[in-house]
TrEMBL record:
Listed name of the protein: Dioxygenase
Organism: Sphingobium jiangsuense
Top enzyme category: oxidoreductase
Cofactor note: Binds 1 Fe(2+) ion per subunit.
Keywords attached to this entry: Dioxygenase, Iron, Metal-binding, Oxidoreductase
GO molecular function: carotenoid dioxygenase activity; metal ion binding
Single Gene Ontology BP annotation: carotene catabolic process
Binding site for Fe cation: H149, H200, H265, H456
């Protein structure tokens, strides 16, 4: 549903320097699907925006007018079939780009993009939320897909990104790309992954790019037969591809790891030189198998998320001895949707944030893209492994938190997240002191109804929105 409202009710006080836009990517089918039991993440993409100027908060949400959305809008009915399977579509839309652009808002070079890793990004006007169109760097990008997760170096302003299935459906092709701080594509290199995997996220350090590959695998013959795009293989190995971040893909080295692991989101990566070793660290939320219910069902994995071993882990590779694989150290409790401050990306860092489901807080509630709602917010010191938690109670679920920096570098900033209350079917935007999450919300923005669960979000300061508006004008 497209909707807007102004000057929403605020309980508490939002700090004056929180001034800008919190963008949210949300799936929401424009028309009732004709595929039974299709996944929530097949829904049409919507861009939501909280525009925040102190205690004045406005909200708006609009559909991303993808080729797929416009085709169905013209037909006034659903035309596209199962998740990432064009062979289940209505013949009327043969050859129509089918991405829904519903996973991540990305801000770079003064432009706002919406991405969903199975197709091109779409550019959106950050002021009106109108869809501008597909984004391919003025025809320069050859990859057919763009990842839902990018890494932006806080020093250089460069954006590092990739596309998997870059050459087409179920191919092993991966395109590794770099855009400069102004948004110009300066590099695109292709390589082949060990198998066609759901390569959802990656990390970049000051010296390396790391591509973790987990055995959730696509098979073209299965897809053509109308079957699921993804099946998780617990008997297949995990891999990490690592190369110099400004190097050639021919320098890629593949490191083999344990069978059957799964991870969707990486918190960060960084380099360290210690005792004659050249270490590269990768912090990520690791599970013993795939967490998505529809993928577990297709894979014959009979386990609930609560039964799976999972942790926030640090994987460490020694560049002088990659043959020995990587070591693992648990640095936090199970969870997902990891975030750091933007200034800490690609660098050694201390603090991270993420959401988790703590069974001690209450029984699981149906919510979010993985089925069970997160009922706890975590702040973790990644060096010591010490963490603190904000438990929301059994009736609430938290969406992915985003970090908002403070002007004072001694201040840790704030976290903002939409919190849903199930018994009242309502949503609020919470602001929490990042350095004191146990203190709870310092301000709550009240919505008149419950919002759709978000996948990912992005914070854009007002000064950057203003610069983009001047540039566009």
């Amino acid at each position: 549903m497209e909707w807007c409202d102004y000057n929403l009710e605020v309980e508490g006080t939002i700090p004056d320097e929180i001034n800008g836009a919190f963008f949210r990517a949300v799936p929401d089918p424009g028309f009732p699907p004709f595929i039974e039991k299709d996944t929530y993440i097949s829904g049409d993409g919507m861009i939501g925006r909280f525009l925040i100027r102190g205690n004045r908060v406005d909200f708006a949400i609009r559909y991303i007018e993808t080729d797929r959305y416009l085709a169905e809008k013209q037909a006034n009915r659903a035309l596209f079939g199962a998740y990432r399977n064009p062979y289940t579509d209505d013949p009327e839309v043969l050859g129509v780009e089918r991405t829904v652009a519903n996973t991540t808002p990305i801000w770079h070079g003064g432009r706002l993009f919406l991405t969903k890793e199975d197709g091109p990004a779409y550019e959106v006007d950050p002021l009106t939320l109108e869809t501008i169109g597909k984004w391919d760097y003025h025809g320069q990008l050859r990859s057919r897909t763009m990842t839902a997760h990018v890494r932006i170096d806080p020093g250089s302003g460069e954006m590092f990104f990739f596309g998997y299935e870059a050459g087409g459906l179920a191919t092993r092709d991966v395109a590794y790309c770099i855009a400069d701080r102004d948004g110009n594509l300066v590099s695109e290199q292709w390589f082949e992954a060990p198998y066609c995997a759901m390569l959802h996220d990656f990390v970049v350090t000051e010296n390396y790019a790391l591509f973790p590959v987990f055995p959730t695998i696509a098979d073209l013959d299965r897809i053509k037969a109308g079957g699921p795009h993804w099946v998780h293989h617990n008997d297949q190995p995990t891999w990490i591809g690592i190369m110099p971040r400004y190097g050639k893909v021919e320098e890629m080295r593949w490191v083999k790891g344990p069978n059957g692991l799964s991870a969707y989101h990486m918190m960060n990566g960084f380099d360290e030189r210690a005792s004659g070793s050249s270490l590269v660290h990768l912090d990520l939320n690791v599970m013993e198998s795939n967490i998505f219910p529809f993928i577990r069902e297709a894979s014959g994995v009979d386990a609930s998320p609560a039964e799976m071993r999972a942790s926030l882990c640090r994987w460490t590779l020694d560049m002088n001895d990659l043959d020995k694989g990587w070591t693992e150290r648990v640095i936090g409790p199970p969870g997902d949707m990891s975030r750091t401050a933007a200034k800490d990306q690609c660098r050694p860092y201390e603090i991270g944030y993420y959401a988790c489901y703590d069974p001690a807080v209450g029984p699981p509630v149906t919510h979010s893209v993985v089925g069970a709602g997160f009922n706890t917010l975590i702040r973790v010191h990644v060096g010591s492994g010490e963490s603190e938690a904000l438990a929301l109670g059994p009736d609430r679920s938290i969406n992915e938190p985003i970090h908002i920096p403070a002007r004072d570098p001694a201040h840790e900033g704030w976290l903002a997240a939409v919190v849903d209350t199930h018994s009242t079917m309502s949503s609020e935007l919470w602001f929490v002191e990042a350095g004191n999450i146990k203190g709870g919300a310092i301000a709550r923005v009240k919505l008149p109804f419950r919002l759709r669960p978000q996948i990912h979000g992005w914070w854009v300061p007002q000064e950057e929105l203003d610069r983009a508006a001047v540039k566009a004008g």
